[in-house]
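Sync notes, pocket subgroup
Present: LS, DG
LS reminded everyone that the earlier model was apo-only. Rerun requested with heme C included. Inputs:
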Amino acid sequence: MKRNILISIALTTSIAFASDANLTKEHNVTEGNVTISPIVKEGVGYIKTVGKMLKSNMKKHMLADKSGVQAVAFCASQASEITKEASKTFPKGVRVYRTSTKVRNPNNKPDATDLEILNFLEKEIEEKSFKKKPLLKKLENNTTRVYVPLLIEKVCTKCHGDTHKINPEINKIINTQYPKDKAINYKEGDLRGVIVAEIPNK
Ligand code: HEC
């Protein structure tokens, strides 16, 4: 999962904004040929910090054990903790989290705003109009959220792919720790979810 997060970040150079009326646009900062809203920049910065922490740990465990068994144990016990720990280093009120329409960990369930964005992205993928870009959403409670989409890559299918092809040891860990797991049977290119930075308005 961590690799993908970083890949999303790398792609922010091709940043663009959704034309959906619900998604607010702010055009202020120019980098290269692209105009980036300061809040998107800030949010992507937080997401990048969390992504780096997750990625370096994931890589370490994947290298130590290519089957992914060690990595799944790491994800199961540490992914949420790492995300929460990183959030503590951000300004007060900033929160970074991951969510999906099909969650593995029920604590990662989307709220109504998350669902709106996830459905919007899924529709874009279905209609082949999807572009990898952060989205901005202003909430009524004085916070703004920046969403970065996470697509399924080959490495993700080790733990989120066809259940019949997942290493039985990995399956065992997943089934024991997440009896209500829905995050399986994804194919490369599917939307796995989003990573979100929630920022209080200044
Ligand atoms: C080694 C196994 C493994 C791999 C590989 C893996 N994941 Fe996961 N993933 C997990 C586990 C375990 C969880 C549950 C973590 C938790 O309890 O918060 C999870 C949770 C997630 C979540 C949070 C939402 C949810 O379902 O609870 C997202 C988003 C996610 N993974 C995306 C990805 C993406 C994208 C990739 C590929 C780049 C990937 N994962 C690769 C094991 C893995």
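DG: Residues 2-28 have pLDDT under 50 and may be disordered.
LS: The pocket of heme C is lined by residues 1, 3-4, 68, 71-72, 75-76, 79-80, 98-100, 103-105, 108, 150, 153, 155-156, 158-160, 183, 192-193 (CB under 6 Å).
Action: DG to write up.
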